Amino acid sequence: MLREELGDALKDAVRAKEKRKTSTLRLILAAIKDRDIAGREGGNRDGVSDDEILQILQKMVKQRRESISTYESAGRLELAEQEGEEIEIIEAFLPQQMNDAEVEAAVAAVVEELGCSGLKDMGRIMALLRERHAGQMDFGKASSFAKERLC
């Protein structure tokens, strides 16, 4: 389970005195715990699934990429570098990401499989892509590829 893998990595990072890795892993585990607590209100006592953890990790990577561009435009290169290091640590726990061609092919396959013809089908397309490729693709890119295909 991904949660245990993250916990073990944190223990190893603490033992190795890797400050950046330790702090990043603590942030990840805190975000997971927050989602666990939010899920309890909805009746989920088991905690978040690995798919939800992958979504959390992807969101964290996306936030850091946005921060990098902000820091670079403000001339804060040392902060941009720190964010880049955190991205590398987080991405180590994500499955191999699909490239643009693979994302486009997956979108085309789903559109054809569902027999989609218009933008009204976007929800069904994205739901099926999330189900099949959780943690493997940038769903923002997938959405734009789907819109191009449907228009």
Give structural notes:
- This protein has 151 residues and is mainly α.
- The chain folds into 2 domains: 2-91, Uncharacterised protein YqeY/AIM41, N-terminal domain (Hypothetical Protein Yqey, Chain: A, domain1, Orthogonal Bundle); 100-150, Arc Repressor Mutant, subunit A, CATH 1.10.10.
- The protein is 76% helix and 0% strand.
- It has 7 helices and no strands.
- It has helices spanning 2-15, 19-41, 50-73, 77-91, 100-114, 122-133, 139-150.
- The termini are far apart.
- The mean pLDDT is 91.
Rg of Cα set: 18 Å
What is the mean pLDDT?
91
- State the domain count: 2
What is the CATH top level name of the largest domain? Mainly Alpha
Strand content: under 5%
List low-pLDDT spans.
none
Please tell me what the overall shape is. Answer: globular
Structural class computed from helices and strand pairing: mainly alpha
- Percent of residues in helical segments? over 70%
Q: What's the CATH topology label of the largest domain?
A: Hypothetical Protein Yqey, Chain: A, domain1
- CATH H-tier superfamily of the largest domain: Uncharacterised protein YqeY/AIM41, N-terminal domain
Q: What does this entry show, briefly?
A:
With 151 residues, the protein is an all-alpha fold. The protein is 76% helix and 0% strand.
Question: Any key phrases for this structure?
Answer:
single chain; 151 residues; mainly alpha; Hypothetical Protein Yqey, Chain: A, domain1; 7 helices; 76% helix
